[in-house]
Structure of dTDP-4-dehydrorhamnose reductase:
Amino acid sequence: MKILLTGCSGQVGYELERSLQGLGEVVAVDRSRMDLSDLDQVRDVVRAVQPRLIVNPAAYTAVDKAESEPELAHRINAQAPGVMAEEALRLGAALVHYSTDYVFPGDDPGARVETDATGPLNVYGASKLAGEQAIVASGVPHLILRTSWVYGMRGKNFLLTMLRLAKERDELRIVADQHGAPTWSRTIADTTATILAQARAHDFSADWWREHGGIYHLSSQGQTTWFEFTQAIIEQAGIDCRLVPITSAEYPTPARRPQYSVLSSQRLLERFGHVPHWRDALRLCMQ
Ligand SMILES: NC(=O)C1=CN([C@@H]2O[C@H](COP(=O)(O)OP(=O)(O)OC[C@H]3O[C@@H](n4cnc5c(N)ncnc54)[C@H](OP(=O)(O)O)[C@@H]3O)[C@@H](O)[C@H]2O)C=CC1
Ligand SMILES: Cc1cn([C@H]2C[C@H](O)[C@@H](COP(=O)(O)OP(=O)(O)O[C@H]3O[C@@H](C)C(=O)[C@@H](O)[C@H]3O)O2)c(=O)[nH]c1=O
Ligand SMILES: [Mg+2]
């Protein structure tokens, strides 16, 4: 069984390339083989590979830059997944896709469930929401896993940025009024593999997708702020650096960000089992 994996050089894609190994023949492609901004190429690669499953962690993830490149972000995050969905449907394949807490406006302190109303505050979030909608509208069997605040020991992420800055500077100013759950890239990949192992046990049947497909939140347990997350990082790394909590207003950025970004992973936990607390995952990752 062939699995077409996109974005294999990204944080989640890198972990998925390992986690998916036991499930089938993984054909992993990066930007050089499949550029998501080239919709014809996306179509051609899917047709050439003829996968039973497409797993798509590739995305335009530069949140601030997206504000000045809305068309490119939309092509990569919405149109390309739409093409993948269309092509998967033609092949009788299924699509696993990733989305974000940033589809929500973040004006409610409670944890968001899958059916809550969306309302992105920025271009990135809007482009990711449009991607979800294109997949759902296509009718392809799918899983859309919405995650949040992804980090790991490789790639571009908040953890590595803070480790670098904390070594360079005596003091860091970090926003303390945005709430969410940092999620380790490996948690996302391993959970994806767990879910897909269950699908495989049912031979990826249409019935399985009908019953278990759809949107799931997949985010670490617990919640924190960027400031408190940084405290945990710096403490575990044993770096001496003064951390100053600030408000979002004191850290102006091109993109607006949600204030409350906590996702409830309850639906996923009930069906597919365990997701670690963010502090436990951080400890494991940094070890
Ligand atoms: N990062 C985060 O904090 C969060 C991410 N998500 C979602 O999770 C998924 C995985 O994200 P994550 O692994 O963290 O993201 P990364 O930014 O680490 O990786 C994204 C990948 O997409 C690739 N990519 C970007 N543009 C193109 C393109 N035009 N053609 C082909 N490939 C391209 C990148 O390639 P290259 O290396 O060449 O740039 C990279 O491999 C995404 O859907 C993202 O929206 C959800 C919540 C939080
Ligand atoms: C570097 C830095 C950032 N910050 C703030 C800015 C921002 O509000 C917060 C996090 O910064 P980032 O640039 O990592 O945030 P951002 O890129 O918005 O992270 C988001 O990425 C996308 C892809 C997602 O899908 C989201 O789930 C989320 O992870 O920290 C500081 O307060 N001080 C600093 O020194
Ligand atoms: Mg960022």
